[in-house]
Design a protein that fits this description.
Length: 110
């Protein structure tokens, strides 16, 4: 196989939204992480397996919940209660605060 070649028009890593299945550059999507206790939290640099959602979170969150996108991405069952808790976190998130992150860590590469 031939190695991947980057072109000058390359927009960096591309990820697929688990809801609408659209592929976009990672900086146009929001990452959700499943923590060890099973809770789902938005956070670009948090450790762990991640799932990506479009910036318009609610429609894609609904699609991901209905189609099993989170189950696929996290390779485990995600309950409706876990998804509802994520919805609540997103609603409460202050627009100027951004997403959770671990200080000093590079952006996620999954």
């Amino acid at each position: 196989t031939s190695p991947r070649r980057r072109t000058t028009t390359d927009q960096g890593p591309r990820r697929t939204c688990v809801g609408c299945r659209t592929t976009r550059p990672a900086d146009q999507l929001r990452r959700v992480v499943r923590q060890a206790d099973g809770t789902l939290v938005p956070g670009r640099t948090l450790p762990g397996r991640g799932a990506w959602l479009c910036q318009a979170l609610q429609p894609c969150l609904d699609l991901a919940a209905r189609r099993g996108g989170f189950d696929r991405a996290f390779r485990t069952r995600v309950t409706p209660a876990q998804i509802e808790a994520l919805r609540q976190l997103i609603r409460e998130e202050a627009p100027d605060r951004g997403v959770h992150f671990v200080p000093g860590t590079p952006a996620a590469r999954d």
